[in-house]
Design a protein that fits this description.
The complex is a heterodimer of chains A (about 280) and B (about 450). Chain A is of the alpha/beta class and about 280 residues long. Chain A has a domain of about 180 residues: Rossmann fold (3-Layer(aba) Sandwich). Chain A is about 30% helix and about 25% strand. Chain A is built from nine helices and twelve strands. Chain B has about 450 residues and is mostly helical. In chain B, the strands form two sheets. Chain B has a two-stranded antiparallel sheet with strand order 1-4. Chain B has a two-stranded antiparallel ribbon with strand order 2-3. The two termini of chain B are about 35 Å apart. Classes of the chains: A alpha/beta (about 280), B mainly alpha (about 450). At the A-B interface, α4, β8, α5 and α7 of A face α2, α3, α14 and α15 of B.
């Protein structure tokens, strides 16, 4: 990674009027009497990383699962590439090109990297597993994403470090002509160096034109990697915009109170009204 | 032989070195390219040594244990009779039953489940096959009887599997129930406490069942078959490895593949050589390879193919390693679990037919002990190297474990211990089983991959 500036040019791309890859409009979700999401709007543009922030219970996970097909929203509409879609299952999400990397990784320890990357989508030849093709494709994906710390892609996942496992999980999500990758707390429980590896990987996904949403508590990571930031507070989207519109302080205030300096979020374009 | 080709992708040279490397020097590791592995033989063996120390040893421990058992019993048996060809062939026959049952048990253990009913289901299977070929009686042709047995046992397994997979009852409880239920039904079918059931060695149709273990392939035919099998398997192994190497895929060094092929050929030659010795008298020669040895190889090949080269097998390993990961990958846990129990029981049914043939075509309430069979089959798998925690092990481990258990069981019976002989047939394998489980647990703790809390 050579790109180190805090505000990458992605910030300007967001306002150029291009249709975002995924658009949520007025998403409501309740579980019994508990309302988890209230009319949430969110744009996830291609080629940009969106950081989704929020305190515990703000609805980050529910929102992610609505996109990933685990939950279905009660009201509201999801638009994918401009078309309204209904994502009823994780298979529907995969078919659209939406992949999720869960916090607990969902890799099988006893299988090797190739086997994990193709789990559930094995390539077959004469009805038998086509190990050679799978190994080649996995190696290609890993080298494209410059995941080079693993010695052999035939080593069991159990023998990898936390950062390497996370990298394999992300590479797995990116392999299937994916257009949108959702990452749930990708750097939780990682050391400094490993966090750096994973964040670099996230930037590479973005550079390849994928839309990425990173759910994170860690504001350092969010400011490091995100082009856009969205903040949930008690099920409502209280702020959404380019990273340049935010400071660490304001994000924390949106997360905890739903407003900053006592005022709700105003997009940068309309900020000129401010006295 | 297929087992070895299946071994190639998973047992990766250098895997352990990479771990040590990654754990200790993550920072430096970031700059190292994922180039082709260093694949000289010396480096491969060093990596292998590291793997063994970390508990991923493959078949080596059980092979060493087989050698150890052979040496010890040869020394302590009266007249040093253990390694006589007649005894060895008897052990092969006895072991094949445990081998087949251990392979059956392996698929269930891979799921991190257990099937305690294999012994009882095997005996039920044997009795079904024997009943179906009876004359007067149904008089079915032998192949139809065997197929019907496999189908019946498969249905039994599917029912138990359904209870485990769909209703989420622990497999321990379901199959313990199955064990008691079918043990009782067995006694009823056999006709009470002293009942028995046999196939005739004179009727041609029944003779086939009788011959499964007792029948012999003439030594010459044995040599030809061995040459053909080793030739084809060796060539396939060699060509596949060189094709992979040309494409730059992970491959062990060529010299190692040559060594593997040579070892397999050596074992084959030893077995045929032992079997070719005349075990009868000068007047009535008894020499040749029992039919059951190629039969076990076919079963081993089928299970290895299924577990290593098909989606079903991959999903079995995935569920054993991390069921949640498998579920999220779209694997149907219910279907895979149910099918595994069904295939386990069907294979056990075959083992039961072999058992009847081993006892000279006779089943009796006295010689059929489902409890001992299940102890030996679970024991054989675990001693062979199949993990009780799921996800680790291969069909070949069941075969080697079965040979070890058969050797121990027969060796103990050779010791002329009088009243001690029968309890020792439980005590010695039981002790070995506990030792194997201990090794399993400790080695998995070493790799930090015990997923149970």
């Amino acid at each position: 990674m050579t790109e180190t500036n805090e505000a990458p040019d992605g910030a300007s791309r967001s306002s150029d009027g291009v249709e975002p890859l995924l658009k949520l409009r007025g998403i409501d979700k309740h579980f019994g009497p508990v309302q988890a999401l209230y009319g949430v709007n969110l744009d996830l543009p291609a080629g940009q990383v969106t950081g989704l922030c929020g305190d515990n219970g703000a609805g980050k996970s529910v929102l992610t699962r609505c996109i990933a097909g685990v939950h279905q929203p009660d009201h509201g509409q999801i638009y994918f590439e401009g078309r309204p879609v209904h994502i009823r299952s994780t298979r529907d999400a995969s078919a659209l090109g939406i992949e999720t990397v869960y916090q607990d990784l969902a890799l099988a320890d006893n299988l090797d990297i190739v086997q994990n990357m193709f789990l559930g989508r094995e390539l077959l030849r004469h009805r038998l597993l086509d190990e050679d093709s799978m190994e080649r494709r996995a190696a290609e994906t890993l080298s494209t994403l410059r995941v080079t710390t693993v010695r052999s892609i035939r080593q069991p996942v159990a023998s990898l470090s936390g950062g390497q496992r996370q990298a394999v999980a992300v590479a797995k999500a990116a392999m299937w002509n994916s257009k949108l990758v959702l990452l749930d707390e990708p750097t939780a429980a990682l050391g400094v160096v490993q966090t750096r590896t994973v964040l670099d990987l996230v930037k590479r996904l973005r550079d390849q034109g994928l839309a990425v949403m990173v759910i994170s508590h860690n504001l350092n990571d969010v400011f490091e990697v995100a082009d856009r930031i969205a903040v949930l507070h008690l099920g409502r989207m209280v702020a959404e915009g380019p990273t340049t519109d935010f400071t660490r302080q304001s994000v924390v205030e949106y997360m905890t109170t739903g407003s900053a300096n006592g005022r709700p979020f105003e997009p940068a374009g309309s900020a000129s009204v401010e006295g | 032989m297929t087992a070895h080709s299946g071994e190639t992708p998973t047992e990766t040279p250098g895997a352990r070195t990479a771990v040590d490397f990654a754990a200790g020097h993550e920072t430096a590791g970031a700059d190292v390219p994922a180039g082709p592995l260093a694949q000289s033989l010396r480096q491969y063996f060093r990596a292998w040594g590291l793997q063994i120390r970390s508990g991923n040893s493959g078949i080596l421990p059980v092979v060493l244990a087989v050698v150890l058992v052979a040496v010890v019993f040869e020394i302590i048996t009266p007249e040093h009779a253990f390694l006589r060809p007649s005894n060895l062939v008897y052990i092969f026959g006895l072991s094949t039953v445990y081998m087949v049952l251990a392979m059956a048990e392996t698929v269930v253990l891979l799921l991190a489940e257990i099937d305690l009913s294999v012994g009882a289901v095997a005996l039920i299977g044997g009795v079904i096959a024997f009943k179906l070929v009876q004359q007067p009686g149904p008089g079915w042709p032998w192949w139809a009887a065997i197929l019907a047995t496999l189908a019946c046992c498969g249905v039994i397994g599917a029912l138990q599997g359904t209870l485990v997979a769909r209703l989420k009852i622990p497999s321990f409880v379901v199959t313990l129930g199955g064990f008691l239920l079918f043990s009782g039904i067995l006694v009823v079918i056999l006709g009470g406490a002293n009942g028995s059931l046999s196939v005739s060695s004179t009727a041609p149709n029944q003779r086939v069942i009788y011959d499964l273990v007792q029948g012999l392939i003439p030594p010459v035919a044995g040599w030809v078959a061995l040459a053909v099998v080793v030739g084809i398997a060796g060539a396939a192994l060699w060509l596949r490895a060189s094709a992979r190497r040309r494409q730059g895929l992970v491959t062990p060094p060529a010299s190692l593949i040559a060594i593997r092929i040579a070892l397999v050929a050596l074992v084959g030659v030893a077995v045929v050589l032992v079997c070719a010795v005349n075990r009868g008298t000068a007047l009535v020669a008894v020499a040749g390879v029992p039919w059951v040895i190629p039969i076990v190889f076919v079963v081993l090949g089928a299970w290895t193919l299924l577990l290593q080269r098909t989606r079903f097998g991959r999903y079995v390993y995935a569920i054993g390693g991390n069921p949640e990961a498998a579920r999220r990958a779209g694997v149907s846990l219910v279907a895979i679990r149910t099918w595994s129990f069904a295939l386990c029981s069907a294979t056990a049914g075959l083992g039961g037919i072999l058992l009847g043939s081993f006892f000279y075509g006779q089943y009796s309430t006295n010689t059929s002990d489902p409890g001992q069979l299940v102890l030996y089959s679970v024991g054989a798998s675990v001693i062979g190297g199949v993990s009780l925690f799921g996800g680790r092990g291969k069909a070949i481990h069941g075969v080697l474990g079965g040979l070890l258990i058969g050797g121990i069981a027969y060796g103990v019976s050779l010791l002329n211990l009088g009243p001690l002989a029968s309890p020792l047939e439980y005590i010695v394998p039981g002790g070995v089983l506990l030792a194997a489980v201990l090794v399993d647990v400790l080695s998995r703790r070493g790799t930090g991959s015990v997923t149970r809390v």
